[in-house]
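Most newcomers find our protein records easier to grasp once they have seen one. Each record describes a single protein and holds just a pair of labelled lines. A learned vocabulary of local backbone shapes supplies the integers on the structure line. Nothing more is needed to start thinking about how sequence determines fold. The record below serves as our worked example for the rest of this section.
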Amino acid sequence: MGLVVLLVLLFFINEIFYKRIAIRHPFVSIRLIRKIFLYHLLFAIVYYVYAVYNPSDSKHYYSTLSQSDINWVETIPMTNWGVFFVEYPFLKYLDFNYEMLMLLFSWFGFVGFVYAYLFFAENIKEKIIVFGKYDLLKLLLFLPNMHFWSASIGKGSMIFMGIMMFIYAVQFPKKRLIALALGSFFIFSIRSHVMFFIIIGVLFGIFFGSDKKLTKGTKVFLIFSGMLFIYLAWSSILSVANLEQSDDLVNDFNEFAYARSEGLSEKAGSGLDMSKYSLPVKLFTFWFRPLFIDVPSSMGIFSSLENLLYLLLFLKICNKSFVRFIKKAPSVVKMSAMIFVLTSFAMTFIMSNLGIIMRQKAQVMYFAFFVIYYFLAYEKARKRYLKQKQQDHIKEPLPFDKQETTVVA
């Protein structure tokens, strides 16, 4: 009964959410967002059935707190404290059971997809068709692996929501301060080192992006906030790898990465000895495996299909045009590219299990997709512009070349 009540309540909350989105972003399709919710709800059911018959972190997060007598504040020193901190009031004060918490955290994942949609749609107005007939944006928003790993109690749904809220808000931090603060909290409380990579990516985009959309005041605010965060959170970031007392960060990190990789390789029967791989092979493994030659489980078949899609999309930027594009790309593109590269680089040193890899990369792949999508949209707009220029003798530069962030249809 509680599950039904919660589901009805979430439907009402969604409708309020949709109305606010429609007012602020009239270019967004609320009908599409409703479809995303139902689709994500389906994966919440799929994951729940999966968790019943398989080991799942969701059980750990529920049982640990339900069997504990600690107070709310005492969740903060716990490992992965963000999950327990958010879970606590619903479990202890509102008496949520396991199924209700699964639904709630799945809803967090859905909110992440809404902000991902807003981030893409706000910056790219071009409609891109790939593989002959598929709308690229819709294809990206309905990727099964992304929905599966953000549909349960745990880090996946929370950090995905946090990352997408943050990246949506960071372009207009003064107008979207609440979303920026909430996104920062969710990311930092789950993976402080990921927050560090995102801050570095944002700063990189500000310094090296070609657009003038960000005002000087916004740039100063973001730079100051980013540097302040790094200063205040540095010890917490290092503590993730037990390096807060280290005198040799490079060697100590290498030792940590090797030990972590060895430990993860023994889990779930899908271990990889990535220590022997070259860096390009490590990155390829993180981005595109499992492929059909791996297939560690029945789930691996579906993941292989999705990874093949990733690979085909990546091939679209393997040309000289992309190199010229990325050199003069706007801040939001360079920011996304840097976050993706930094996070991928770090994770390749500690990931050696295909199951873990499938979960971890779901957090950052949308940054790569955004870069690819923006490039394809720019190329489409450029070709259309050149054709019109020849026909109508247009002298105005392409919108992108006027250093605007948005690719205009």
Summary: The chain has two domains: 1-190, 239-409. The two ends are 48 Å apart (CA to CA).
